Amino acid sequence: MKIVVFNKPFDVLSQFREDEAHLTLAHFIHDPDLRLAGRLDLDSEGLMFLTDHGGLNQYITNPVNKKFKTYLAQVDGDVTEEALEQLRKGVELADGMTLPAKAIKVDAPEWLWERDPPVRYRANIPTSWIELQICEGRNRQVRRMTAAVGFPTLRLIRTKIGSIDLVRMGLQPGEQTEIEPLLYPDFKDVPEDKPYRSRSYVKKPGGTGGKPMHQKKKDGDANGGEKKKSGTKRIWQMDESEKPRRKTNGTTRPNTKAPRGRSRNGR
């Protein structure tokens, strides 16, 4: 399993497909085996990780596994304890109630890099910082949550995914590094990267799930040899003498009935 941690800069698209207006991940990541596990919006910054493991994306992003992602949000206004308590209980959004979050007010981080362009400045309205932890991944969720409690987000940086800490690694925007999964408890229960299993296969008690799907070879058997023919003839391949006869008790009469829809005299 390979995992690469990347610090996404502001105004970079979380995709490998080229874009005429913005930089994309293809400008920074050149390993064709890596796939993105968890996106960040164009105007968000910070921790992303990429992997060559097929099941890791779903494992990390599924809320059932409680892999909390930590964000630093600079919000418009001096955030109140009442607003933080709302975030902790869950916020009603257009697509439903959010799960309870972990939310605290923090000081402006001294380690944070400058953003280009900088966040708008208004002398008559202060800003404040929130550390927010969520285990969901809805579209623009943190921004919608802070706006719903009256404090719109001005700048958003993802700093952690589970125990992977961008600040501790010291990565600057655009920098990346490969990490060793065995050193992080987050990956000890990751399911194995196995072949696709048929949904129609019923899992037996104590079993290991569905059977792997293997494509059959059209021009031969599974070992690449000639295709074997069945040893049993079909009914249309048999001579009259080979066709099976129905066993009776000697009382069966010949069929003298006319076909359905026609009388015996042909009318």
TrEMBL record:
| Matches recorded under InterPro entries | PsdUridine_s_RsuA/RluB/E/F_cat, PsdUridine_synth_cat_dom_sf, PsdUridine_synth_RsuA/RluA, PsdUridine_synth_RsuA/RluB/E/F, PsdUridine_synth_RsuA/RluB_CS, RsuA_PseudoU_synthase, TruA/RsuA/RluB/E/F_N
Domain named Pseudouridine synthase RsuA/RluA-like is located at 3-148
| This protein's record includes keyword Isomerase | yes
Residue ranges with Basic and acidic residues bias: 186-196, 218-229
Among the record's GO biological process terms, what is one?
rRNA processing
The cross-references to Gene3D superfamilies, in alphabetical order and at most eight, read: Alpha-L RNA-binding motif (3.30.70.1560), Pseudouridine synthase I, catalytic domain, N-terminal subdomain (3.30.70.580)
State the UniProt keywords alphabetically: Isomerase
* Family indicated by similarity: Belongs to the pseudouridine synthase RsuA family.
User: What is the designated name of this protein?
Assistant: Pseudouridine synthase
